[in-house]
Amino acid sequence: VELVRIGVDIGGTKTDAVVIGDETVLMQRARSVTGFGSQAVVETAVSAISHVASLAGTPVAGFDSIGIGIPGMVDGHTGGVRHAVNLGFDALELGAELQSRLGVRVQVENDVKAAALGAYHLLGLASSMAYLNLGTGLAAGIVVDGELWRGARATAGEIGHIPVDPNGLSCPCGQRGCLETVASGSGIARQWPTEDPHPVRDVFRAARAGDAAAMRIRGSLADGVASAVRILVLTADVETVVIGGGLSHLGEELMVEVRAVLTTWAESSLFLASLDLPSRMRVTPENTPAAAIGAALIGAV
Ligand SMILES: [Zn+2]
Question: What pLDDT shows up at residue 18?
Fold first, then answer.
């Protein structure tokens, strides 16, 4: 009997729902707009699950598992979500609410951790991998032998708040010079005030045109991403670092800059050269719902 699973990635603006079969084959996909506030998020999840189930022609109760990826601090045991600032709530018992609405158990996980699991399977990786999410914030999910490694208190991979510059910008977390202040969408938006809805693309455009401030911001983004790759390899010695998230859509233009930083470091350090960091980086394939597929796999646990 074939297993079928539902995965839902609830993002700040869009929600992505998928049905996957055995071997993580994508069978259905449906996207919708995410509601704002706790009850609107619950409604978004319920209708995304019902909709994608109906596309697959299977009642919701007929699926082998259902999983949700959502930004914020997630208690994987209770399905409770806290500090989901971009979704407009501070606390929500999402797992319990969905279970009472749908009559089936729903597993909930942090969106970056879910995407890590999805990318690991989509890229057919073995051994160990870190998924570096360059989005509004900066965080990583670590997968070892096909399983998420959360750490003792689910903090493993929260590298965005490692301070790297004692004279750097103050960070909303209360520290100064965190990686996230230079290598994230929110960090760049703070340094580059613009009407453009995509500040990072705007910075790259201005940098290409020779704007000095934009070139400096682009440079510190590349330094920050390179630092994140180095931190992930030096702390967890993951075989592969997969770059994903909204900023990864800059694709080669960003990766060329990051590889140049890593190559410069390797030229002055035999130790770093021996780690061969540039060849251990990958980018998530475009237009693949890694986070939603990962959420479906989370549900299988
Ligand atoms: Zn911070």
Answer: 97
Which pair of structure tokens corresponds to residue 214? 């934009």
How many A from CA of 90 to the centre of ligand 1? 19
Name the strands in the sheet holding 107-110, side by side, starting at the edge strand that comes first in the sequence. 26-33, 14-20, 5-10, 65-70, 107-110
User: Hey, which residues does 281 pair with through a beta bridge?
Assistant: 241
What pLDDT sits at residue 247? 84
pLDDT averages per 10-residue partition of the chain, 301 residues: 89 95 90 97 98 96 95 93 93 97 94 96 94 94 94 91 95 94 95 93 96 97 97 97 88 92 97 97 88 91 58
Cα-atom radius of gyration of the chain, to the nearest Å? 19
**Which residues fall inside 5 Å of ion ligand 1, going by CB?**
161, 171, 173, 175, 178
Residue 137 C-alpha to ligand 1 middle, in angstroms? Answer: 10
| pTM of the shown model | 0.93
CA of 163 to the centre of ligand 1 (A): 7
Closest CA to 147 of 113, 124, 122: 113
Query: Distance between CA 115 and CA 109 in Å, rounded?
Result: 10
Measured CA to CA, the distance from residue 38 to residue 92 in angstroms comes to: 6
Q: What's the pLDDT score for residue 1?
A: 61
CA of 179 to the centre of ligand 1 (A): 7
